[in-house]
């Protein structure tokens, strides 16, 4: 029997799981906005991974103003310098006050550090967090170890896996 199978090297998230965890994130953020009634002005998704959680959060919190910021920091699993490819609406954003910025995960924290610099008063939220980037995020749901690779459902497909024992 092998020690580890390829599909065990990561943390595999199903659509159902990301839906539940994103709802949990919405639940945690509900009523914590800076407005008197605790609401948030807008949701901004960090594309592309933040779009699915941002959609779920904005649906749960009844936020109709949704914008995007595009930050690219990885080529497959190789990290490079984080760069902003597209900014959200300037007038909407201001210094970030009342804006909920959502991403799927924080890993090294490079992406969020850049976003924080641009919008110092925004609230940064992710569904998953790794220890190295945890300081960069104000609200998250689940922490995984630094050496875990999170596999999201939009990056996967159902396929055959070999049994632990056997040759087929
Ligand atoms: O904390 P960091 O080390 O900066 O990494 C986290 C970021 O990396 C991934 O995005 P990626 O740049 O791969 O783009 P994508 O969302 O379009 O897949 C992920 O979705 C986060 O946005
Ligand atoms: O799909 C992903 N899983 C991860 O664990 C990760 N870390 C940075 N970027 C990532 N993308
Ligand atoms: Mg991303």
UniProtKB/TrEMBL annotation:
Q: How does it sit in the membrane?
A: Peripheral membrane protein
Q: Which residues form a coiled coil?
A: none
Entry's Gene3D superfamilies? 3.40.50.2020
Q: Per the entry, which co-factors are needed?
A: Mg(2+)
Location in the cell reads: Cell membrane
Q: Which residues bind Mg(2+)?
A: 104
Q: In which pathway does it act?
A: Purine metabolism; GMP biosynthesis via salvage pathway; GMP from guanine: step 1/1; Purine metabolism; XMP biosynthesis via salvage pathway; XMP from xanthine: step 1/1
Q: Which residues form the Phosphoribosyltransferase domain?
A: 14-160
Annotated residues for binding of guanine: 107, 150
The record's keywords, sorted A to Z, are: Cell membrane, Glycosyltransferase, Magnesium, Membrane, Metal-binding, Purine salvage, Transferase
Q: What is its EC number?
A: 2.4.2.22
Top-level division of the source organism's lineage: Bacteria
Q: Which residues bind GMP?
A: 107-111, 149-150
Q: Where does 5-phospho-alpha-D-ribose 1-diphosphate bind?
A: 48-49, 103-111
For molecular function, the Gene Ontology terms on record are: guanine phosphoribosyltransferase activity; hypoxanthine phosphoribosyltransferase activity; magnesium ion binding; xanthine phosphoribosyltransferase activity
Where does it primarily localize? membrane
Database matches in InterPro entries: PRTase-like (IPR029057), PRTase_dom (IPR000836), Xanthine_Guanine_PRibTrfase (IPR023747)
Query: Among its keywords, does the record have Magnesium?
Result: yes
**To which protein family does this belong?**
Belongs to the purine/pyrimidine phosphoribosyltransferase family. XGPT subfamily.
On assembly, the entry states: Homotetramer.
Q: By what name is this protein known?
A: Xanthine-guanine phosphoribosyltransferase
